[in-house]
Amino acid sequence: MNLHELLTRRANSVGPVKVGVIGVGKFASMFLTQALHVPEIHVVGVADLDVGKARAALARTGWPAERYQAGSFAEALRAGGTYVSDSADDLIAAPGLEALLEVTGNPVAGARHAELGIDAGLHVIMVNVEADCLVGPVLAEKARAAGVVYSMAYGDQPALISELVDWCRTIGFDVVAAGKGTKYLPEYVTSTPDTVWDYYGFTAGQLAAGDFNPKMFNSFLDGTKSAIEMAAVANATGLIPQDEGLLFPPVDVDDLATVLRPQEAGGQLSRRGTVEVISSLRRDGRPLERDLRWGVYVTFEARTDYAARCFAEYGMQTDPSGRFGALYRPYHLIGLELGISIASAVLRGEPTGTARAFHGDVVSVAKRDLRAGEVLDGEGGYTVRGVLAPASASLARRALPIGLAGGVTLRNGIVAGDVLTYEDVSIDEGAAAVRLRRQLESAALTQSRP
Length: 450
What we know:
By secondary structure, the chain is α/β, with parallel strands linked by helices. It has helices at residues 3-14, 26-35, 51-60, 73-79, 88-92, 107-119, 129-146, 157-171, 196-200, 204-209, 214-221, 224-237, 256-259, 305-313, 339-348, 391-396, 432-448, and strands at 17-22, 41-47, 83-85, 99-102, 123-126, 150-152, 174-182, 274-279, 296-301, 324-329, 360-366, 375-377, 384-390, 406-410, 425-426. Helices cover 38% and strands 17% of the residues. It folds into 3 domains: 3-155 and 335-348, NAD(P)-binding Rossmann-like Domain (Rossmann fold); 158-184 and 223-332, no CATH class; 360-448, Type Iii Antifreeze Protein Isoform Hplc 12. The protein has 17 helices and 15 strands. The mean pLDDT is 95.
């Protein structure tokens, strides 16, 4: 690992790497507090629809006010400061910018920003997993054609999972499963922004002091965010979701290799080479002793008897057969780690994970009975949740992706638990995200025909 040396050389020769940030929530705030102490990276501008919120985030994360008082992006570029604006388009067009961090969490806006950034010759770090899940393979192809990098965000779990999968394959192991941990119980699937904080146990003081978005946190709780992240992993690695989606089995870290192996080998997976999210809670609500709530993992199989014997000789925790092993990382630091993606993209021309093909999708499922004429509120809301599915299954039933389930009106009534389809809603075909999604679906359908 010599990224810091590369950053230092680059800064000494031509100056710091120049980046722009779109969207200032928790993830961006975590990045900004680190960037303050990395002189080799210059945050030229921050764009958010709520400029006051963006300035408050900079202040909260330790930035002195004089650092973000520039009068324009051009002035910030010249003076080494940071300009705060409500215009993402102006930030993308700022001369001298090299990398764009898309951190809005809004799939429709994120797809548009990423396409504009690629067209402007910028490397795009797609923190917005919602947009990546929706249209990532198309954006990645556009970036390759434009000679720029389209990358997952290091520090976020999908990039870290993809790194573990790459480690396995590079050294010759068969990847059995890869994924992450989370806090999950089946009852969470009907949670709404009104109930989310009861499940998390945050105090009023914690909520008042932080940048906590109830819909985003509810997306983690009701399983939608896990589905989105695992679809992104599938599209980056070629792992195929199980037909039944995510099962969230409770798994202790010492049991990873035993539980997350194929059913024919004694495990719980219905498919080899898949993704799964494990719960830190037993089904009765009791916590596991050694959970992986904040971490990521990969399980793999030795291809030879000799390799399996090496597992035992070097103390690896395996399944009872001794052939299946696991590697895990107990924590991820989210935006605190994002500098890795910036340095890798700009200085090496390499993504820290990127969408390559359409293998996984997240379909919209009704949380309750819905009436014709209702407006869906998308990820983490009151009306729908996202469920992971193989892309082929989603395409076959013309399922409405969760990324397009915000702000659309229902044409038909839907029973709780049913999958919504394109025929059930009115879609704005003129939106960039919809256009890109149609390209993805058309390409996938063409490739699937004999």
